[in-house]
Amino acid sequence: MSEPRSQHLISARELIDHPVPRPVVLHVGRASATLPAPQVKIAGAHVTELEDDFGGPADGERGRLPLPDARSVTDRIRSWGIDGATPVIVYAARSELVSAATRAWFVLRWAGLPDVRLLDGGLDAWRAEGGGTEDIATTAPAVPSAFTASPGRLPTIDADRAAQFGARGNLLDARDKAAYAGGHIPGARLVPSPVFDDGRLKSAEALQSALPIPAAVYCGAGVSATTVAFAYATLGRTVPVYVASWSGWTADADRPIEQA
């Protein structure tokens, strides 16, 4: 039995040396990113985008980037040639976008794929190990699968449940200090420090000392929160995510706001 960390995280060297069957690799970018996108990707990877492939349309209390519906996530997964037995690797187009890659990890696991791992360090780590790349516009071949998503395999909560976790002091806010100070869900605690450093997950020892006993986590729009959920998963713990997060909470003017 592999350790929780290796069930969710893979190094560039391990991916280069990965035995058959070869995993399907997903290059995860973000349309809203302000920095220019890289012009290359891992050879054979499918190019994906956070907003289009791992989210649904903005929807008030469901938040700025709700989870995709079962049909759309099924169609996406099938188009990449992934079935229930396919190992999948997701990686960030840039180290600053690691939360986009953890959101992809979360959505794919939530949709029912059992073997989804994050490439530690993303594209930069791959290139540093001498991994092959190709032009970002190159289309990766895929044989469409017959996979059908079964959403709900990772836990999520709504605003009422988030309020309950907050009232018990067991709700974590994964935004930065300024956003937290400007307003947060009552009772929420700020995540003490980022769980990634330059796109690489911190050591198990560092995570264990920094992260409190888990309960639930949220952020601005359900993206950064998945970095925390991912970190807990590598420690063998599962935490629910309030996907609507602050964007959904504040869509209801009657919901209370606490300020630091």
From TrEMBL:
Extract the InterPro entries matched here.
Rhodanese-like_dom (IPR001763), Rhodanese-like_dom_sf (IPR036873), Thiosulphate_STrfase_CS (IPR001307), TST/MPST-like (IPR045078)
Q: Which UniProt keywords apply?
A: Repeat, Transferase
The keyword Transferase is annotated on this UniProt entry: yes
Q: Which first-to-last residue range defines the signal peptide?
A: none
List the SMART domains hit by this protein, alphabetically.
RHOD
- A Pfam family cross-referenced in the UniProt record is Rhodanese
The source's domain of life comes to Bacteria
Instruction: Please report the stretch or stretches of sequence annotated as the Rhodanese domain.
Output: 42-135, 165-258
Q: Which protein is depicted?
A: Sulfurtransferase
Provenance organism: Dactylosporangium salmoneum
